[in-house]
Amino acid sequence: xxxxxxxxxxxxxxxxxxxxxxxxxxxxxxxxxxxxxxxxxxxxxxxxxxxxxxxxxxxxxxxxxxxxxxxxxxxxxxxxxxxxxxxxxxxxxxxxxxxxxxxxxxxxxxxxxxxxxxxxxxxxxxxxxxxxxxxxxxxxxxxxxxxxxxxxxxxxxxxxxxxxxxxxxxxxxxxxxxxxxxxxxxxxxxxxxxxxxxxxxxxxxxxxxxxxxxxxxxxxxxxxxxxxxxxxxxxxxxxxxxxxxxxxxxxxxxxxxxxx
Length: 260
Fold this sequence. Notes:
The chain has a three-stranded antiparallel beta sheet with strand order 1-3-2. It has ten helices and three strands. A hairpin with a 2-residue loop joins strand 2 (131-135) and strand 3. Among the domains are: 79-143, Arc Repressor Mutant, subunit A (Orthogonal Bundle); 149-212; 217-250. The protein is mainly α.
């Protein structure tokens, strides 16, 4: 070591950017550029204590399961995910449970909230995926992989039959379309006939509108009006009914009369 400390490295607190004063007691003052950089960084917290040691020494697949459970608790499970995980409890244990048992096991092992256990379990019972039996005052639930396999096979057979039926209908419709196209190719003659048909249909609608204007002058309508007045006159003379009562009982409008 040289005289007066010559040859020794300078203190750590003297290694500061140019123009920034260092303090021999507290070291260099906070650097603004360092604060800006830390604001853009994401803070990650790790477990401490024995839990962190167990986590670090866990096999990779367990770490993946742990991460999945943590993420599921943060995001929440969908209804289908809850159903799948509850079925895993039955298949893995091959045991019979009561509702209170599932309310303890499902949150701990599968991350299903205790409040939703009853609803999820009932939906599985309604769909025939879980069996239920009341013995005494308690309800027992169970499900075995063999039954689930048979249920899936039946579902697959039903869907396959529906798929085949749909394909057959599609083929029949396509054949009908092909037959309907025969003789309907776009030719010059067909184009002329199509325009003529459209013109005739428009003319028909015009004539119907014009005929509607003279509907009240139709001889058949006039004759019907004449018959109604004749019956009213006969009823008044025969039974002494008032004309207003006859109109009311037979639904004849008050302004019903001959056309001028």
